[in-house]
Amino acid sequence: MEKVSVIIPVYNTTEFLDSCIDSVLQQTHDNTEIIIVNDGSNEECTTKLVGMDDRIDKVKLFHLPENKGVAFARNFGLEKASGDFVYFLDSDDYISNTTLENLVSHIGEFPMITGKNVSVNKANELAAIEYKKPFVIYKRKRLSRFKNRSAVNRLVRMDFIKEHGLQFKEDVKVFSDMEFILPFISLMPRVPYLKTALYFKRKRNDPINNPSLMQDLSSEEKIKDFLKVFNALKDQYAETPQAIRYLDRHFLNFFRKSIVLHCQTHGDIENVFREASYSANKVDKKAYSHLNIVVRQEINYLKNGNLSKFNKMMRLHLRLRKSKRAVQSKRKFFIQMYRSVFLKMPVKEKTIVFESFLGKNYSCSPKYIYEYMVKNNYDYNYVWIFNEKGRQLPGNPKQVKRFSLSYYYYLARAKYWVSNSRLPKHLDKREENVYLQTWHGTPLKKLVFDMNDIHSANPNYKSDFYSQSRRWDYLIAPNQFSHDIFKRAFLFDKEMLDTGYPRNDILHNEKDTDLPNEIKRKIGIPLDKKVILYAPTWRDGDFIDRGKYRFDLSLDLAKLKETLGDEYVVLLRMHYFIANNIDISGFEGFAYELSKYEDIAELYLISDMLITDYSSVFFDYASLRRPILFFAYDLELYRDTLRGFYMDIEKELPGPLVRNTDEIINSIQNVDQMNIEYKDKYDAFYDKYCGWEDGKASERVVKKVFK
Ligand code: C2G
User: Fold this and answer.
1) 658 Cβ below 6 A of ligand 1
2) Taking residues 564-580, what's their average pLDDT?
3) 600 in contact with ligand 1, CB cutoff 6 A
4) For 578-608, what is each residue's pLDDT tens digit?
5) Is the pLDDT confidence value at 543 over 60?
6) Taking the CB of residue 375, how many other CB atoms lie within 10 A of it?
7) What is the mean pLDDT of residues 331-356?
8) What are the start-end ranges of the H helices in 238-288?
9) Domain Glycosyltransferase 2-like spans what residues (predicted)?
10) Which helix or strand (DSSP H or E) is residue 106 part of?
11) Are 129 and 198 in contact (CB under 8 A)?
């Protein structure tokens, strides 16, 4: 059986190594050697590699004395390889267990065969492994034109490499593969492509702390590398028309995607322009004769080295594209108005825009900050963002619909923004703008940069979060514990307001007033029944779409009603991300579906007891010093896989962990005993997490931010 040498250059990818190497060890093709080239990785990664080497005899591990770059590492691996075929795999990716077998059995007489790449991020990685089979489409092998310039997921004949002296270009950090790949383009008119040979390419989710090579370089560095490779190959293959066509096509593509973008977004572009101009002169006119006149002019000015005309043409090109986009969609038109008109108008010094939970309701700290200001006659104009307008609100603020033209107008002009979650990335913060981020809970579950893997629907979560949170000027901390975590997990370095949560003022100020009964009457809850509130959080892995998650009720309502129905009613309150409806038919008068109720703080006020899970609601509810049960039926999955926690919940929680409805019923029937049992823990919990709150948090925040 023919031997395959799998060459894996490694640089600081500890967390991905197991899945990468295991995927090679599990190959159905038997005769494989694994050549790992440790390219000067850190100690953690090196130790991990050494451990693997001991375990497995197929692995040949080499250490380079310092980081020499991926091209050098691959060339080094090539020298060590003894197989009939070579296959390149990156150390943060992995392959399906039949990939090599499929490639070997279909390569025939060709010097190279290509497989199919599948992009994976944390959210679909499990799915990709689990559903590996259905991914494989058993189609006949197809000869296709060669589009992609990367060396991974190709089985290459060693003879061919040796015969042509193929190498990766070592004096660039990126695009070093092109030099290795190009001979195939010029010598093979067609390359077999096999859909069943899968390569799982990982999309890194933390470009801030753990960037991939591409993510780590500036656009200027990438452009310089590309041009260097392009120039060298153009000269080397001047006599090979196929290679020339391939190179020209790549240049034009790169010009339109990367060079133009760089020039539009950077001030000092002279250097890049000069170098690109030099390369553009190597491009054959025929390669771009089919493009539209504006792009052709752009390329001509680039070739002539006329920067000012090039700039003019680029701006015209941009304007044309923008207006084309603007008519394509209303939202885009609003955004264009926002950028080109509203942001140019002066800031309104006395305007504050408020938003809570992405416009879903009138609640949380923004509500209480706002109400404090209205009640104390602060001289400001107030604007609230909602998904649905038309609420009756104290102070009668202006209400705007989220993402409407007025939304963009007020966000552009208001000096102040107050929000409890993130505002969209496409908004621009003006220099004069003051952004108060209230956030929305003491964290139990790990946050952003403390999270290892992202299981939720948005794979760009970390980088989005990073850019959105750079705009925050103030951030409210409910307690010292949150202060420390927020600083680290949000990488927040502006002013933290150690005030406690404004949203909990109501729990201190209205606990003993008529308000609780008024709220019960408004909802229609009998005054003679005790109230249990069930308020669980969302599950990162159960998504329907971005921002839309599913939740299945694990409470047995029938059992609860049967045992507790005479004394209690149950309020069901789902997290605002939950998109499916909870069905309570048959339980009317006992169960109340209040997921759409505006403000959960009002539900806390009227509840005698809380059941929750890993939601931050219990940190707030504890301000009332009322009993709390933790219905943690999926604790292991949630804590160990999906999120990870900041505290040892078995030690610190101020109430019991329960796993099923029977245990819930049992705790409720013995609630007095439970209160005694948990008294000390409750006191300690209260001091640590609720100690800063006294009903005056809104006042402290307003005095600080609005002077
Ligand atoms: N919430 C609610 N109803 C629920 C759950 C939550 O109204 N059933 C509200 C509460 O105000 C809660 C907030 O949403 O404090 C945040 O909910 P969490 O369940 O804690 O989850 P998440 O939105 O992921 O925020 O630092 C806090 C974390 O970021 C948690």
Assistant:
1) no
2) 94
3) yes
4) 888 888 999 999 999 999 999 999 999 999 9
5) yes
6) 11
7) 94
8) 241-254, 260-265, 270-280
9) 5-164
10) helix 99-106
11) no
β-bridge pairing 474-476 and 434-437:
parallel
Query: How is the chain split among helix, strand and coil, in percent rounded to 5?
Result: 45, 15, 40
Model's pTM, two decimal places? 0.66
- pLDDT, tens digit (0-9, with 9 covering 90-100), for 463-496: 899 999 999 999 999 999 999 999 999 999 999 9
Q: Give the pLDDT confidence score for residue 343 in this predicted structure.
A: 96
Residues 462, 468, 470, 476: is their CA dihedral positive or negative?
negative
Cβ distance 570 to 547 under 8 Å?
A: no
C-beta 420 within 6 A of ligand 1: no
Least confident window among 104-108, 242-246, 326-330: 326-330
Cα gap 135→127, rounded to integer Å? 10
Measured in angstroms, how far is the CA atom of residue 599 from the centroid of ligand 1?
A: 12
Residue, of 274 and 134, whose pLDDT is higher: 274
Q: Are 216 and 11 in contact (CB under 8 A)?
A: no
pLDDT in tens, 612-656: 999 999 999 999 999 999 999 988 888 877 678 999 988 999 999
> Domains of the chain, with CATH numbers?
4-206 (3.90.550.10), 220-328 (no CATH), 339-504 (3.40.50.11820), 505-689 (3.40.50.12580)
Query: Does ligand 1 have an atom closer than 6 angstroms to the CB of 107?
Result: no
Beta strands in 502-627 (DSSP E): 530-534, 543-545, 548-549, 568-572, 591-593, 609-612
Sign of CA dihedral 82, 84, 88, 91: negative
The tokens for 568 are: 């209690």
Helix axes 661-669, 557-564, angle to 10 degrees: 20
Alpha carbons 605 and 533: distance in angstroms, whole number: 10
Helix H, strand E, coil C: the string for 292-316 is: CHHHHHHHHHHHHCCHHHHHHHHHH
Q: Closest by alpha carbon to 366, among 698, 618, 651?
A: 698
Question: According to the model, what pLDDT value does residue 252 have?
Answer: 92
Atom of ligand 1 nearest to the CA of 538: 19
For residue 26, give the amino acid letter: Q
- Check pocket membership of 353 for ligand 1, CB cut-off 6 A: no
